[in-house]
Specification:
InterPro entries: ATP-PRT_HisG_long (IPR020621), ATP_PRibTrfase_cat (IPR013820), ATP_PRibTrfase_HisG (IPR001348), HisG_C (IPR013115), N-reg_PII-like_a/b (IPR011322), N-reg_PII/ATP_PRibTrfase_C (IPR015867). By secondary structure, the chain is of the alpha/beta class. 29% of the residues lie in helices and 33% in strands. Strands 2-3-1-4-11-5 form a 6-stranded mixed β-sheet, with helices on both faces. A 5-stranded mixed β-sheet has the order 8-7-9-6-10. Helix 4 links the parallel strand 7 and strand 8. Helix 3 packs across helix 4. It is globular and about 80 Å long.
């Protein structure tokens, strides 16, 4: 069986389980379950702490895993990202008291507090910055106020927590993170079971991004309509009973669906509708 690590808690857990369910995999019913077997799909799921998943995958005990890009890099484990999943996005930034730090160059000689020591140490080394890194578990905003560090490095979403702590963002983002599928570095990328798993998840990502659009239009307007809805390869066009009319079907990006419907209506298309896509293979 394919052995897969899944986050058992935190912001990664719920969305990961939902995506796997949409991909047709059985998921646990109780949060206390640490392992389940999906015999139909020949998969065994292990529910682990998100920070530990890269370590387990790198050890070779598990084939692949779902974790955060930040946790993968921070772990320093011998594992690699093979598919971004588009959820649990976050941005890592430096922050300090206003006016004390203007950019990375000013970090030299300072102490940086963070929960992601591996990420920060690698970033500092990459930019040739000689600074100390102190590891703290959570609530790093208070490190500056308590004199533990002059700078912090943490996840920044709205920046509200930083402002409440009297801090401001410094410099460019350290990294952009999101949920990713990982495997041990150097593992055979052609494993059919892994490829099938990735195709299923890619199908979910596409299904979430696109809708199916159907409409009728006159033949003389078909080229304009097709230009608006080119589909992935090309749209499906079928003649209608009424001469001079055709039915068109194409996948369109869901974010643009309303605008496309308006444009189609303006050139004379009618009976325009969209339907959700629950699964696909491209």
């Amino acid at each position: 069986m394919l052995r897969i690590a899944v986050p058992n808690k935190g912001s990664l857990s719920g969305p990961a389980a939902e995506m796997l369910h949409e991909a047709g995999y059985q998921q646990r019913r109780e949060s206390k379950e640490l392992r389940i077997v999906d015999p139909v799909n020949e998969v065994e799921f292990f529910y682990l702490r998100p920070r530990d998943i890269a370590i387990y995958v790198a050890s070779g005990q598990l084939d692949i895993g779902i974790t955060g890009r930040d946790l993968l890099i921070d772990s320093g484990a011998d594992a690699e990202e093979i598919l971004p999943l588009g959820f649990a996005r976050s941005t890592f930034r430096y922050a300090a008291k206003p006016g004390t730090i203007t950019g990375p160059a000013d970090l030299t000689g300072t102490t940086v507090a963070t929960s992601y020591e591996g990420i920060v140490a690698a970033h500092l080394a990459e930019h040739g910055i000689d600074a100390s890194v102190v590891h703290l578990d959570g609530a790093v905003e208070t490190a500056i106020q308590l004199g533990v560090a002059q700078v912090i490095a943490d996840v920044v979403e709205t920046g509200t927590s930083l402002r409440n702590a009297g801090l401001e963002v410094v410099g460019e983002p350290i990294m952009q993170s999101e949920a990713v599928v990982i495997r041990r570095t150097g593992t055979d990328g052609e494993d059919p079971k892994v490829q099938q798993f990735l195709r299923r998840l890619q199908g979910v990502l596409v299904a979430r991004t696109y809708v199916m659009m159907d409409y009728d239009c006159r033949v003389e307007q078909l080229e304009k309509a097709v230009a608006l809805t080119p589909g992935l390869e090309s749209p499906t066009v079928s003649p209608l009973h009424n001469e001079g009319w055709v039915a068109v079907r194409a996948m369109v990006p869901s974010k643009e669906a309303q605008r496309i419907m308006d444009d189609l209506y303006d050139i004379g298309a009618r009976a325009i509708l969209t339907t959700a896509i629950h699964a696909c293979r491209l």
